[in-house]
Each structure stands twice: as C-alpha cells, then as structure tokens.
Amino acid sequence: MKKYYENAKDNAAFDRCIDVMAKLMQRYGPQVLEQQETKTCKEETPQHFEKAA
Fold first, then answer.
1. How wide is the angle at C-alpha 24 spanned by C-alphas 31 and 12, nearest 5°?
2. How far is CA 50 from CA 7, 41, 44, in A?
3. pLDDT for 2
4. Residues 6+ apart with CB under 8 A from 3
C-alpha cells in the first residue's frame, strides 16, 4: 500500500475514500457519461442544422 500521509489514520482514511470513489465511478460512471453525451448532443444539434443550411 502506498503512503500518502505521515499519519497512519489519515492514510487509511484516504485509502477508504479512494475505494469508495472508485466503486461509485464503476457503478454509476456509464450512466453519468450517457447523460452527459445526451445533454451534449441536445445542445449541439441546433448548431449543426444551422451550419448545414
């Protein structure tokens, strides 16, 4: 295990935090990316039609 902080409790807390964040990204990451792509497509669509005309 890599040492990030001098205090062992802080280091353990940081590792736990990173583990939780990684699990959340694995679980919800695809849904969030899909929502962002959908949002981006909706925002860009009118501009594409204006450029083509």
1. 165
2. 58, 15, 10
3. 74
4. 11
What amino acid is encoded at 5 in this protein?
Y
Each residue's pLDDT tens digit, 12-43: 999 999 999 999 999 999 999 998 888 877 76
DSSP state of 53: -
Distance from C-alpha of 26 to C-alpha of 20, rounded to nearest angstrom: 10
> What is the value of pTM for the model shown?
0.59
Residue entry with tokens 């962002």 = 36
Dihedral sign, CA of 38, 40, 42, 45? negative
